[in-house]
Amino acid sequence: MPFVEKTPDTTSNPLTQFINNLGASQGRNTINAEDCLAQASEVSGLYIHIPFCFHKCHYCDFYSIVGDENQQTKFVERLVSEFAAVAPYITQPIETIFIGGGTPTLIEQNLLSKMLGAIATHFTLAQDYEWTIEANPETLTPDVSTRLAEGGINRVSIGAQSFDIDCLKTLERWHTPGSVAKSMQHVRNAGIENVNLDLIFGIPNQTMEVFRNDIKQTVDLSPEHISAYALTYEPNTPLYVREQRGDLQKIDEDLESRMFQETMTILEAHGYEQYEISNYAKPNRSCKHNLMYWNNKSWWPCGPAAAGHISGRRWRNVPKLSQYLTGFGLPSIEDVETLSENGQAGEALMLGLRLRDGIQSDRVDQLLQVKGGQWRRKVIEEHIQQGNLDFASSLRLTSKGLMVADSIIGDLLMDETSMVDTTMQDPNAKK
Amino acid sequence: MHIRNFSIIAHIDHGKSTLADRLLQATKAVTERESRDQLLDSMDLERERGITIKASAVTVHHTYNGEDYELNFIDTPGHVDFTYEVSRALTACEGALLVVDSTQGVEAQTLANAYLAIENNLDLIPVVNKIDLPSADPDKVAMEIEQLIGLPAEDCINCSAKTGEGIIELLDLICSRLPEPEPAKIKQTRALIFDSHYDEYRGVVVYFRIFDGSLKKGDRILMMGTGRTFTITELGRYTPTPTPTQEIGTSQVGYMVAAIKTLEDVRVGDTITLDTDPAGEPLSGYEEPKQMVFCDFYPASSDTGSKKTEFETLREAVEKLRLNDSSFTFEAQHSEALGFGFRCGFLGLLHMEIVQERLEREGGAEIIQTAPTVNYRIELTDDTTIDIHNPADLPDPTLIKHICEPIVRVEIICPDENIGDLMRLCETRRGIFKGQKFVSAGRQMLDYELPLAEIIYDFYDKLKSITRGYGTMDYEIIEFRADKLVKVGILVNGDPVEALSMICHRDKAVARTRIILLKLRKQIDRHQFEIALQAAIGGKIIARETVKSVRKNVTAKCYGGDITRKRKLLEKQKKGKRRMKAIGNVHIPQEAFLSILEQGD
């Protein structure tokens, strides 16, 4: 699962980094990974970013590169040193791990096993942990699948995207439609029973008929979990450029919205519950790791460009692989943002409303009482009147509101621009 | 000593400035080395556009038949937007050189200027210029001059300002053919102001021609039109460098400096007399400049953060320019769509263009310019009239008897083969055919009456494209005339958008508003509800477009690394929405207004 947005090369100079590494912390821009570590006891999830790909898919704006084996070896060693530095501070058992990329399963098999072993060695896993790895169908050979299972992985997320050869071509995905079923079989044979398939709809030239067939093929494979995303044109991706140049055309908004409706209807009829805007699961198969994001919980990031969050503070590791590789232990971090209580409330609403169950009403009351955030109550009431929100035991989007979730969430975000708390927080203060 | 006061009138690029320069050189007023090209045009802009905006006067001497002649060369603005200024400059002369390019022939502007000179009783010397060029056809051009202006072909003098051929002969002709100025009629002093400019160090410099009496340094003077008095601190003549002198006498031309702070204190056409012994009557012909074309200037910035300083820059530029050009007017304007700016009035289209360029070039202001409109004269039911240039100022319809618009007389000279297309163009612009005249083999002149509002958009560009650049036109405002003019309102979900209302002809209202509604439809984002865009005359809807409601606006993915970016994006959209203009509950981006209000189709 892609977690990390592409970021420009870091501009911090070596001196700044040196000072950061000494732990000097004056002003919010000098917060470093050690400062975050001080709160690591709140963490119960890990996100690990593997930046390697066969090549970059045209719609992908996540940080990744096509690396060679020598680089992979260095990378895994570097990553393991990061695990070693972080692990002592994470005092709770790890509930969820998500290894995303890139294409994590692209890593050479022995290195892959080494990495999984290091994770299991350094971190203490909870009894009913969920450990997911992202994979492309063509990488999931019987051998790789076995290594994943042996390493402790119990959930695989496969990027199927479409079963139509033309659609796959538009997305620059080079696997064959048939390879999805094969890879799933290998994963199941290896003993991993929890599988997600990723689907994309709204691909240029995709018709309703083609899309219905995509859903049918997906459902026929009976995965435990399905993620179905509308294609988005992220700036700085080849797809976006092609669209801007007029080489390809976005599909009609009405058709796309019908595809979305169709997805919800068909998947529900096949026993998949839509628990988030783009995510559907069989009973008790929701992705715990992703639920952690939407419930605004804390997690720790490992690997270049991986983003982390602890109690209202967000940051990311240095994104450039070469820079990441030169360090040892904790990497330098950037894009640190510490939100005010009011800002956190806005984010909590933004994330929580993505869930079909919404946000528990007592939690909503808490969020609406934060200093400077009371105005949201009126906005919520307006949207209830317009039929976009429903507020009983929980605050949730109606099926009408679901279609225009961004407009509603936008209205609930901060009124003023001062969402980011610019005052330095004492890095040693425990919450 | 003999005096000759004269101007040169010509179509753009027919060689007026080069000729002026050559004349100065021939009288030894300037050496070749001193001579910059085209000495009389002092502004970059004028030089680039080949037109003269500001008049000035140069005094030189020429010996003819052994006698000394003082030649006062009075420069005139080259375009009919400045008709009034041209006419004042011409009033200061007894004669004029009518210059025609021997490769181009008589053009629309040649005619307009010649008529103006004839109206002012000037003697004309037709000069056929550029005879050194291979494509020169001086005989044909001389025939055109005879045909259209009525000056005998054999009176034409051929010359080349470039090579100097015929220049001495022309100087001799100025002395022999142009009349001596008439002697003073009264004993009191009367001098005509024919131009002025603002000098940062000395204040306003006034150019004048004395008709009666004389002016001396230290004289206390009275401007008869404005009633202001000043004391002359410097008096002089351009030879062509400014040369101070103690006194300037009857029939002579010169400049003065008198601690005059703003151009508003000096009106072209006004009469200067002595405060101690004033003349009883001023010289005739004084008029207030009349602005006929209007448009708004706004600072070009979409960022509200720096808007204020951008506005200040624009304000300074406008105020500074106004010091140099008292014939454009401005008033602060606040558009709900575009913020703070200025509504400016101009003598005509070219004048508007020049002002805009000078604001950008000299004032460093980046400008958004709205499409130009004209001045309407509203006849009210109580038989009074008011002038308005903003549809928002229209009185209640029940009080309006007629809406009248300015009508111009347009003369077009073009190749024969374009006559049909040009007539069709004029028809679509509500033109009234007035006449058609033979110019010379292959060329004709068309004479039309057109509403000014119909030619301020793109008429000239169309004319140029139809004639592949060969056609020329000139126009003159003749009167206000009532027509089926209506106020058209634009409604967004039933709410009127005053910034977009306009006055237009009933028969064209539907076509014009359709274009506007289409532009709006493209620029307004889908909302959660359907938006009706309508055009209405009074209560009657004449056109409609619809912005469909949003079907789907939901981010597909929002995982750990997406959260900050996602939040910032939604906040940015929300901020953007706040910058938009809300009409009812519809948010309209500034670009939507711009696409409609800005100049263009």
Q: What is the residue-mean pLDDT of chain A, rounded to a whole number?
A: 87
As laid out across the biggest beta sheet of chain A, the strand order is 7-8-6-5-4-3-2-1-9
**What oligomeric state do the depicted chains represent?**
heterodimer
- What Rg of chain B is obtained from the alpha carbons, in whole angstroms? 28 Å
What structural class do helix, strand and pairing data of chain A support? alpha/beta
Strand-residue fraction of chain B? 25-35%
Envelope shape of chain A: globular
The CATH architecture name of the largest domain in chain A reads: Alpha-Beta Horseshoe
Broad structural category of chain B: alpha+beta
Number of strands of chain A: 15
Number of domains of chain A: 2
How far apart are the termini of chain A? 30 Å
Query: How would you write the strand order of the largest sheet of chain B?
Result: 11-10-16-7-8-15-12-13
Number of helices of chain B: 14
CATH superfamily of the largest domain in chain A: tm_1862 like domain
Question: Which consecutive residue ranges of chain B, at least 5 long each, have pLDDT under 50?
Answer: 45-55
Unreliable stretches of chain A: 1-29, 416-431
What's the count of strands of chain B? 34
Main beta-sheet annotation of chain A:
9 strands, mixed
**What is the percent of helical residues of chain A?**
25-40%
